[in-house]
Amino acid sequence: MANPQQKTDFTTKFVLAISVVVLLVTVIFLVTRLINVIDQARAPAEPSTSAQAMVEERIRPIGRVVSADVDAQAVAAPRTAADIYRGVCAACHDTGAAGAPRKGDEAEWRTRMGQGFDTVLSHAINGFNAMPARGGDPSLSDDDMRQVVAYLLTESGIRVNGAAASAPAAAPAAAPAAAAPAPAAAPTATAAAGDATAGQAKFASCAACHGAQGQGMGIFPKLAGTAPERIAELLKKYRAGEQVGPQTALMAPNATGLSDQDIADLAAFVGTL
Hints:
CATH superfamily of the domain at 81-156: Cytochrome c-like domain
Number of strands: 2
Shape: rod-shaped
Helix content: 40-55%
């Protein structure tokens, strides 16, 4: 039979063990709650500079609309038919290049007019033989072409009813300027420092035969991809009257009035095509 004192010691130890366990569980629970409260009270961390930049890049608008007054003086004045002729058509119709009828050749133009004005206009709009559509300037409208054809006929001594040759035509996107077309291949030479922006304006008349992007049209060679040095070398030879190739007769009259700077600017622009 067990001793009463022993029973008391056992009961005491058991109660003490249970109390210790309960105490530990209570402490762990309280510590956990305290940690949660601290985390909730802590302010969220600021994102890093690089992460913020990435977010701004993703949500940045791809464009915007700006409304502003237009300065009337800054708007380019519309070109007349004569302006368009000088910038687009003169390279061929002043020289007779590639069989083009010359301005002022009344007999030749009367022969063409035997088909009717509408047919001559259709050839100018859609292209005919070596002449590219719209003279190589796709920005010209049908009305622009009507005005230019009427102007050319009037200058050749043929009156055209219903088409005012001197009326202004809508301004095209490309800036007009007189320059000479350039060949696609040439010997190597060192070009003077040129301004490609200035050369772009001078290239307007070259585009009439070689295309707005220098892609070449008909018998006129491609210029895009040609080294600026080669362009400058050939233009100088054309200007000097040297016989360079089968296109010399077409190019020489247009290169005669070019300065060294004009040639350098044209070569620099062609190098960007």
